[in-house]
Amino acid sequence: MKPIVYGLLASFFFAFTFIFNRAMEIEGGSWMWSASLRYIFMVPILWAVVGYRGGVTSLVREMRQHPFPWFLWSFVGFVLFYAPLTFAASFGPGWLIASTWQLVIIAGILLTPLFYKLVETASGPVLIREKLPVKGLLMSSIILLGVIFMQIEHAESLSFLTAVGCVATVMVAAFAYPLGNRKMMEMCGERLDAFQRTFGMTLATFPFWLILAGCGYVTEGAPSASQMIQSLIVAVSAGLIATVLFFWATDMVKANQQKLAAVEATQAGAVIFTLAGEVWFLSTPLPSFLSWMGIILVMSGMVLHSFLSRQKEEKIKTETKELTF
């Protein structure tokens, strides 16, 4: 249950991304500055945290041993995730981006067959391809159906270009985030904690963020004070707190693809938190009856995911006790 709670907390802080990115877009801020400033601000913050915990030396050693995988999966997990997500803010309001982002629920499950688990057999340990968790996919479909319900009324007011542009860019982010995270967990094992992994992925992609910031300066000029402050808030809330909480949650269940899918499904909570934040801060109209039905479906799907994971955990404990006796 603890990984689910951490996942929900992560979705709360991650909602700041959609709210502030949309606010910065409304104010006329460049998406390139919004994306790059978040990670530029994260470097000194994470350096201080990881340094205080005495983890910088071991992190640098790990990165030197596998430089290309670190760059590749960090690029996938951070750059191909956040750059498209920030760019998508120009296509519509935060609720639209947050809702489309829930493709990550399905994406995380569909990526399962790309990974292997080590199984002990009579002839020794063998790598076996993970199976697609059908029950998890069904639970995630309930969440996705709820998201669709929430946005049906809004979809009618969107142009075709807006809808396609939003879906295409966010779809890239939705597949990149779980893929990059899972590959990094697979590579790091138990040698690095969530703070170290976040810091390492930020360092590995830092050159790209500097280049993107340079492009933003050439095309749009320097960022405003307001955009810098909002980007700093996003860096702390979503970049640091949400990312570390999510990495902690996934670390706890990384050996179980069913539970991992359940944790990833908690990110649906970002839709509800984003909607509440936009109503509060950006004066977005309250949801209609149909949208409230969607919210109920989203919450029901998250509860079912949690129940399914708990049920499987209890079954494993029972089987273990039987084997012991």
How would you characterize this protein structure?
With 325 residues, the chain is mainly alpha-helical. The protein has one domain (2-320). Helices cover 79% and strands 4% of the residues. The protein is built from 13 helices and 2 strands. The chain has helices at residues 2-26, 31-52, 56-65, 67-87, 94-100, 103-110, 134-155, 160-188, 194-220, 225-252, 257-265, 269-281, 289-324, and strands spanning 116-121, 124-129. Strands 1-2 form a two-stranded antiparallel sheet. A hairpin with a 2-residue loop joins strand 1 and strand 2 (124-129). Helix 2 (31-52) crosses helix 4 (67-87) and helix 6 packs across helix 8. It is globular. The chain starts with a helix and ends with a helix. Residues 319-325 have low confidence and may be disordered. InterPro entries: EmrE. Keywords: Membrane, Transmembrane, Transmembrane helix.
Q: Notable features of this structure?
A:
4% strand, two-stranded antiparallel sheet
Low-confidence stretches: 319-325
Decide which structural class fits the backbone. Answer: mainly alpha
Largest sheet: 2 strands, antiparallel
The run of helices and strands is HHHHHHEEHHHHHHH
Strand residue content: under 5%
**Strand order within the widest sheet?**
1-2
Total domains, how many?
1
